[in-house]
Every structure is written in C-alpha cells, then in structure tokens.
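Hey, I'm writing a tutorial for new members on how sequence and structure tokens pair up, and I'd like a real worked example in the thread rather than a made-up one. If someone can provide the structure for the chain below, I'll link this post from the tutorial.
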Amino acid sequence: MASVQQTIFGLRDEHIAEGLNEESIPSDPLGLFESWLGEAVSRELPSANALHLATTGPDGRPSGRIVLLRGYDERGLVFYSNYESRKGKELKANNNAAMTFFWDALFRQIRVEGKVHMLPPAESDEYFSSRPRESRIGALASEQSRVLGDRNILEQRINELEEKFSNAEPERPSYWGGYYLVPLYYEFWQGRDHRLHDRIVFRRKDVGANWETARLYP
C-alpha cells in the first residue's frame, strides 16, 4: 500500500487554462480583481468570497484563518470580526496583513498585501443590522478566541440573549465591527500547464502612488 507521502507526491493537476498577458489586463489591479472575483461568483463556485487572512502576533509568529470578503471599493477589501479576537488583537499591534484568494476550478489565485484599518462605526452598524438575527445574537454571545470551558455556557448565553431581545433588535456591540485592507501589493496567479504559471504583480509604495507592474518567474 502506498504511503500518504507517496500518494501526495503522485497528485497531478489536470487544469488547462488560458494565459495572463500584460496587454490584456487593466492598469488598475482593482479592475482585474473585480473581474476574477466576478467570474468565481457567476460560476457559483463554493465560498467564492472566502479568503485566507494572515496576521502577525507581537512575538513575530504568523497566524492565519479563513474569513469572508464582505465588500470592496477604491478604499480597500472589507471583512468583519470581533475586535477582541486573536486576529483583532494582532491587527491592533501590527496592522500589516495579507489575503489570499484561491479558486481551484479556475486555476487562479490572488495575493493581496497591505495595511488594515477599522471601518467607521456607522458602516459597521449598517452591516450588523443587515445580518440574520441569529448571527447578531451569536456575535453578542461569543467571546471570540477566548477559552470556553463548556459549550453549554455558550448555549445558555444565547438563550438568555434571545429572551432579552425577544421584543427588540440586537445592536452592534462595540467590540465587533469591520476592517478594510488597503492594498499595496497584488499578485495575480494564473495556473498553466507543466507548472509554468503566469504571475503578474502590481506594487505601490503608498496609497495614491502609481502602480508598478512586473511579471515573476513561476
């Protein structure tokens, strides 16, 4: 019987994809980002807006988790979280972060690096009010990333909150809200046969600066 290692090494990608040419991409990376994300959504790929968010703790150790992209514009890429969670504390200490989107069916990946800032409270309020009631109750009940001795404690807290807000709408707690990552670096990875992938990067030194583009070796 083959070992797990042998099985993994034996895996091969069978994707066939068109190339990524500098002549066909927009000068602003947001346009290409929107196009790729839009195609993933239109093809109804599972969790098309999921991304891996990487942050760094005060000790320099990286950590990552999957979150959902909830919006984007010229300002940046938006996601929401508990400000007192592990990622919230790490972003408070060091707001440099990285995002990675991957769509296997399209053989595409986008890496984004930049600085993360909190959304204005009014925008977080608006988004929170649009969430399902159960999700709002959950946000109030969860002390995200902290040790939970027994799940019954969480479920009891949810029951208490449901009773408390039986005749009222739960409001956004001050410790929960939105962030936006201001991109300083994009890398668009288009898979190609024989590992000869296309990698096009956009870089800028600061917000408002012109984007510089380059092609990287696969």
